[in-house]
Amino acid sequence: MNEELRNHIINLLNKGVRLDGRKPLEYRKPVDIKYDFSKSAEGSARVQIGETVVIAGVKLATQEPYPDSPEEGCLMVNAELLPISNPEFETGPPGIDAIEISRVVDRGIRESKAIDMKKLCVEKGEKVWSVMIDICPLNDAGNLFDISALSALAALKNTKFPKTDKEGTIDYKNKTDKSLSLDKQTVSVTVCKIGDHLIVDPITEEEKVIDARMTIATDQNQNLCAMQKGGDSPLTEEEISKMVDIGVKKCDELRKAL
Q1: What is the spatial distance between Cα 10 and Cα 242, in angstroms, rounded to a whole number?
Q2: What is residue 154's three-state secondary structure?
Q3: Quick one: pLDDT at residue 1?
Q4: pTM of the model
Q5: Helix 96-111 crosses helix 144-157 at what angle (to 10 degrees)?
Q6: Confidence band, pLDDT 50/70/90 cuts, at residue 2
Q7: What is the number of structural domains in the chain?
Q8: Residue 216, domain CATH
């Protein structure tokens, strides 16, 4: 850890400002969402927060359901961190960072029951729709957790089912007017602790000196759906409570961009 950078950031936070001039609980601007970014996906979105840009795409396919859920569709989230977005990323199998982002986004969608998985059942025990979400940063300038969750939700909102013939063969070149049914609009906010201070939407330099972080996922009714703790330092009960309160409020702020 760069102690000189850390001390500089803490000194600024003591004065109520950050490296880029923002307040501790202020998101970068713009928070911009562009839908239907990819014509080859069933749903897609390009999301930008500050200089961080992420695209997400949704592909739909049919498969046999899992034995323990014969009436439910399937969900899979994959994040790919490529060197084009950050020189510290490497090509090859998903690393720890990519796996954690995938799991955090997946958990927020799954635990909030944003998608009614039973509506994806075509024939009980035989055929269901699977929903596959691919997340790919174009430029990583910090806070991939929140922007990945937001881009996944935006892509789901944009999703249309492809046409199928009488035999069930999918025509991916043509879409129907049927949208993917979303019961919840689940977004995530990551609250970070640096020294005695709590911040949101960290830039790359701030991420290097974070003591601990908590990602909070809520739906549009402010119901707490999922949480993920990261960082090496422990958190007190009081700190966790403050982080949750901040996360709930900031989730509503991010959700307005949709």
Answers
A1: 19
A2: helix
A3: 56
A4: 0.95
A5: 50
A6: confident
A7: 1
A8: 3.30.230.70
